[in-house]
# Entry
Amino acid sequence: MGEATRFAVEQLFREHASALEAFLYRRTRSHADAIEIAQETYVRMLQIKDMDAIRNPKAYMFSVAANLASEHAARQGRTRGGLDISDPVLDAELSYEPDVGDQIDRAQDAARLHEVLAELPAKCRAAFHLQHGHGMSYEEIAQHLSVSTHMVKKYLSQAILHCRRRLGPP
# Structure
């Protein structure tokens, strides 16, 4: 590994580490796994012989990370193995039938929340969906909506206050 490669990779990770970890978290749903895969991505990037040959190092880094996350998911699936059908916990879960009334209440609550969110301005609603539906960070939402992170915080505060006012206390 050349000194130039090490410097380029360190710079790349300094600039994009939090976005990379958020990206990996959305794929793994585990902070520990996201950090571990980000570190493995760093090691793989250090092994590149000629960084100048890569047109878009950031995109390449995210591709490496996505591939590692896919490999990780495949390993996780293999290590979990099959289910033990004689497991009493599994038997209880499979025999559970949710109450129809609860299902209707949840569906009505979701529909009501959807109506209340539809009352918000487009960017405010989009910020709420990007954070709560896609797990994006303030910085990622700001980039996606072409606004500042401060504005994202305002949008999210506005959305939460609006929902509290319209939906009432829990």
